[in-house]
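Page 42, continued from yesterday. The earlier attempt failed because a stray header line got pasted into the input along with the sequence. Redoing it now with the clean sequence only.
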Amino acid sequence: MLIPRTASDAVKSKITNPSSNIITEYNENEIVCSPKNSNPDIGIIFYTGAKIEHYAYGYMLANLAENNILCVAEDNLIHIPLFSMQDCENIFERYPNIKNWYFAGHSLGGEVADRQALKYQDRVKGAINLGAHLRQNFSDSSLRLLSIYASNDTFANPNIYYMFENNLPPNKAYYLINGGCHAYFGDFGTMLTDGEPEITPEEQQTSSATQILQFVTNS
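This time it went through. Structure tokens are written below.
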């Protein structure tokens, strides 16, 4: 039986008890975080890491929503992102005000985000990877790509990033979070054999959100 890595109460509260500036909606297999009093034109469809609750990314999702970004966090009953690769046309249609869509994901979810970005490259601007190796080939696409790594991540070692350099698109960005680890892109505890973190999950997710916001608003 696949037991999901459960989000901490603190990060979950960012979604279940959002600030007055955020609206949280619960649809089938997804959570939507959106700014309350505005009509954003940028949206992110996010895929979790394997066996991780989507609540675990609440610091980042709430931060982005606070900054006028619509966030749709995809999930499924067994928390495996490969099974969350459903047709996204319904999401695009539900939010016609969104002119600039991105796919994003953590770990295995990053690979799913890359696949989805290539599948829908006529509809989206690009992909965002958090602690994920780039296994898809973006070199011939016009998609934008942001790769965020953590210095103490032993699952997606930042040094391996350069092994996939031939897969990178011309429009790319790279950011390294010093002191971060693989697990702290979410907040669900630690992972066996992961590196030792020197910052908190909230600090790592806030740093990720800052880089994502800068990336998507400078398209």
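Notes: DSSP finds five helices and eight strands in the chain.
Reminder to self: strip header lines before submitting.
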